[in-house]
Amino acid sequence: MASDTKLTLAKLAELAGVSTSTASRALKDNPLIKKETREKIQELAKTHNFSINAAASRLRTQKTNVIAVILNLIDNTEQSTTDPFLLKLVGELNQALNAKGYELLLSNSFMASDDWANYFIRSQRADGILVIGQGKSTHKIDLAAQSGVPIVVWGDAKTLAPYPIVGGDNFEGGYRATLHLLNQGATRVLFLGDPEHAEMQERHKGYLKAHQDVNVEVDTQCTCAIDITSKAAYQYINERIKAHGLDFDGIVCVSDMVALGALKALKERYVGIPSDVGIVGYDDISLAELMHPSLTTIRQNTQQAAALMVEQLINQLEGKPTQSQVVDTTLVARRSTK
Q: Which of 1, 34, 42, 288 lies 20 to 30 A from 204 at CA?
């Protein structure tokens, strides 16, 4: 049988014995369609040299089946899209979106315009927006939400906002990390990170509360505001030791990458870990277990987070109620603490 290059989607669906919408979703490899049906329709399409016209489909349905994922990086930071935790969460979001029949469009707050609603939604680049990080300002997020676009944010879920936020319990994470060190005898614990960042701010509150609960006074000089990168942590610890000597016996880091930089600086100065200084990271990236010594850290369930973020976004797309949600946060004790 000769191939028909002008075969329509409706005709293809008729040949397969399914509805047009089923044929369309099968061609997009939507996992909601049975594998056997998908394979049958895809084979028919190949036989008849048929490919769906994506542009025409978008015009007809006003849907792209694409979700924009924006890495909301703060200004004046060296943190980049190569950050292991960001990549981990993006990977989990990609799987969660694919399972619901959506593709992922990755961007960042530097590349996207200030008007996300126009740039992504009204231009038909995407149907909705997932944002990773609240940063120090939620201006762009708030602007998009005010425009009525479907949007969900990874951040501090306790923040009051007119859009759903999914994230770990940052206060609890900072509290557990600090209490772990204090209970092991540490008396002067540094908080290494950026306490003005929305998520880090809550971790810092947990850090302060842990000191209060065990009656250990907190020196303001122990809150160390740095960029959330391993390079910044490495430089800070080196400079602090040069200026003040080893005036601390514990470090609570706002990320595992920050912990990696601090760990490197201490090891180069032959400081014993954890005998002289205990270190707790945050995020439990795969590298944490491979560090030497392996890193005690706070684990956030990113797989659960991704599933919840996608669920809340689809609820918005379908006009259903949404709500902010907190994901599981646990302390993973390894060799960087006693």
A: 288
